[in-house]
Design goal:
single chain, 503 residues, alpha+beta, Phosphorylase Kinase, domain 1, Transferase(Phosphotransferase), domain 1, Immunoglobulin-like, 5-stranded antiparallel β-sheet, 4-stranded antiparallel β-sheet, 13 helices, ATP binding, membrane, nucleotide-binding
Length: 503
């Protein structure tokens, strides 16, 4: 494995305070800053120092403007600002997504098919929105999908690597495990169907817990991965709960020949929606600017002859949000709560409070309904008081009163898993490096997911029981950089892995 460089020096930015490193990339580093006014945490991506000529700066500005146009999308990371630091490095100020991203989850969690389908549709909507704005992502992978504070996937890193120099393009900005064959060829060439492949490869990883052509426990060098991507069929996912229809969607989207793939990201989204429907799952809505438009509903022959009437009918129909989708579990989508029928009634008059003007006297029927409701409330309260007074005397059976007035048990909110601290190490006599770290909140059953940060792709992560690991011998004088997460017994893990380097 090739060791990676240490983080670059964070630039001094007016109005911001540097907090810590969030991640290292081949073309940029990401830092956590605190914006002072308005006060909030933000992620700042800083391009690495190098030959940044006027052409590169101009293209960087153009891309920043394009990304800003996409920031309104709920599954695309919001861009707050783009500028040039005092040391000449361009940087982007983005929303800080504090929850674990897909790269932190897919190797340590078994994501449900329902969640993966929901994430897939939302990501496909984001990719389609970018394509319609003329932007190819070129590097869709789990590490580039963050999670917002509200649990939505958020796609980031839109082709920034392509702006680092003439000819860099997709060839140097790609990540091999999720790249289609055409981007691995000489010369590399791709279009929207290349993003379709990478989108499907990312969905595959979420289901399989590994990259598509990775052999668990086998040799997975860059050359071997490229050979499999170019010639081997898509391997089985290896999960009995993944339906054949979903396998078929991924097989088509990851076809070797781009002409055999889905022609667009929205076509992938619709195919995933069909799988959701076949499994009787709530169908995830497409987040596209024109998807909210509905065809006018036929109002019947009486509305057809008069164009004015037809116009009035259309205007009313546009206010109808349409049929509600199939209900989702309460912890996944609050749509059910919004559409639940609400029983309303007029409350009984409160002594000393006058009725609203315009209706001085309530109708007798209304007064009788209010009195009846009040009587029911008083009787229910008396029943509860009687149960409390009797305490343990007798064995009361289940009844409407206990069901109505007993709150459902609340699940405890799990505390966030911290990241390891104090990463350090010692270079041993044989050239290997022993890396150690500390657990700031040790608990029974804790384990550690660690890996060496490499120049290409993601680190190969290994789960260990002790806060130490040994990295094989490196080239003389080469730094060793690692990332480490704490994994609890319930499989929850650090929101952000810690990173550190050993000289």
């Amino acid at each position: 494995m090739t060791a990676r460089r240490a983080p670059s020096t964070p630039p001094r930015l007016p109005g911001y305070e540097h907090v810590r490193v969030l991640g290292l990339g081949g073309f940029a580093d990401v830092f956590l800053y605190r914006q002072l006014l308005p006060r909030r945490d933000v992620a700042v991506k800083v391009l690495l120092a190098g030959s940044l000529d006027d052409d590169v700066r101009e293209r960087f500005q153009t891309e920043a403007n394009l990304m800003a146009q996409l920031s309104h999308h709920p599954s695309i990371v919001t861009i707050h600002q783009a500028a040039i630091a005092d040391d000449g490095r361009p940087y982007l100020v983005m929303e800080y997504c504090s929850r674990p991203g897909l790269a932190d989850r897919y190797r340590v969690e078994r994501l449900s098919v329902a969640e993966v389908l929901r994430v897939g549709v939302r990501l496909a909507s984001a990719v389609e929105t970018a394509h319609r704005a003329g932007i190819l992502h070129r590097d869709i992978k789990p590490a580039n999908v963050l999670t917002t504070d509200f649990g939505w996937p958020a796609l980031t890193d839109f082709g920034i690597a392509a702006t680092t120099g003439p000819g860099a393009g997709a060839a140097t900005g790609m990540s091999i495990p999720w790249s289609p064959p055409e981007l691995l060829a000489e010369p590399p060439a791709g279009d929207v169907r290349s993003d379709v492949y990478s989108l499907a490869a990312t969905i595959y990883s979420l289901l399989a817990g590994r990259t598509p052509f990775e052999v668990p426990g086998g040799a997975n060098s860059a050359q071997q991965l490229v050979a499999r991507i170019e010639r081997a069929p898509v391997p089985p996912i290896g999960r009995d709960d993944v339906p054949a229809a979903l396998h078929a969607v991924l097989d088509r989207a990851m076809a070797k020949n781009p002409s055999r793939r889905y022609p667009s990201a929205v076509a992938v989204a619709r195919a995933l929606q069909e799988v959701e429907a076949s499994l009787h799952l709530p169908v995830t809505a497409l987040d596209l600017p024109d998807e909210g438009l509905r065809e006018p509903v036929d109002a019947g022959p009486s509305a057809a002859p008069d164009p004015d009437d037809a116009t009035r009918v259309r205007s009313v129909l546009q206010l109808d949000p349409g049929p509600a989708p199939a209900p989702a579990p309460a912890d996944l989508d609050d749509g059910v709560t919004r559409r639940r029928p609400v029983l309303t009634f007029d409350p009984a008059p409160v002594p000393g409070v006058a009725e609203p003007t315009g209706e001085p006297d309530a109708p007798p029927t209304r007064r009788r309904v209010a009195a009846a409701v009040s009587a029911v409330v008083v009787l229910a309260a008396a029943a509860v008081l009687l149960v409390v007074t009797l305490g343990g005397r007798g064995t009361p059976g289940p009844g409407p009163a206990s069901t109505e007035f007993t709150s459902p048990p609340q699940e405890p909110v799990a505390a966030a898993v911290p990241a390891p601290v104090g990463i350090g190490g010692t270079r041993l006599a044989d050239g290997s490096v022993e890396v150690t770290w500390q657990n700031p909140d040790p608990q029974e059953g804790d384990a550690y997911l660690w890996g060496v940060l490499t120049a290409t792709g993601e680190p190969e992560l290994v789960l260990v029981d002790e806060p130490r690991a040994v990295v094989p011998a490196q080239q003389a004088g080469e730094e060793v950089c690692v990332q480490v997460s704490i994994v609890r017994a319930d499989r929850s893990s650090s929101a952000r892995p810690a990173q550190g380097c050993v000289p």
